[in-house]
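Worked example 2:
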Amino acid sequence: MQAWVQEKFGGPLTLKAVEDPTPGPGEVVLQVEAVGLNFADHLLRLGAYLARLHPPFIPGMEVVGRVGERRYAALIGQGGLAERVAVPEAALLPVPEGLSPEEAAAYPVSFLTAYLALRRAGARPGESVLVQAAAGALGTAAVQVAKALGLKVVAAASRPEKLALPERLGADLTAPYEELPERVKALGGVDLVLEVRGKAIEESLTLLKPKGRLVYIGAAEGEVVPIPPLRLMRKNLAVVGFWLAPLMGERPLVEEALGFLLPRLGKELKPVVGRVFPFAEAEAAFQALLDRSHTGKIVVRL
């Protein structure tokens, strides 16, 4: 079969013929139809992700495909950018009827992260949440999930032209980053922040109301800034770390999230697909992932 292989950290992908996967005990072989790209895939290729692999490996942790006649999604550590991949049966996720392979590839990471991050923060109906990068894959999911949970949503993005998308998805207030502090302070602050930028964390803390909570999901802007403890003390703030991968092993938690998401996906919750690339253009898809002008989920289609 054909697969894209990362042969060294920071290097290009190489399209190679590799052996078909042999499923182990409790595994099935997924015939891959689509792969959703995440910033975590980019970090994995650089050797900078929380879970580190040693090259050579096949990137791609969010896949959609078929086992027999049934379509599933799956979150795996690696291996997605291939024609077939062995997946633990326990890792298979249902795909709601009516979702295309591209839409299905845009749901697992983003919507599970949005729901579980808000749950981890103890979000309550009527509270307000700041969603950064609100036109991206996670941001568009977070806006929709937050509204479904009864929250007021402040959506922010790097460029004004990106804000029409989260506004259409139900955001109550939108602002480009440069105007965000003034707009949020005029509201009296927010209860929650979903932090994905990283370098703006001190600004994010100033936007929280007393007893506010910040969920640290990532540092997509490439700079990790220390968190000042005294800033937390002054307003009784809380900062919570979030990493989806280990939580996927907590079956009751995953079942709770799926119980909320699956009946709504394709209806009030709509995965936003950005650019779709053919399998032969996987490297170009990664370049699009890093382009600050992109919106929604970047998908590689087989």
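The mean pLDDT is 94. Residues 2-107+271-301 form a domain with the Quinone Oxidoreductase; Chain A, domain 1 fold (CATH 3.90.180.10).
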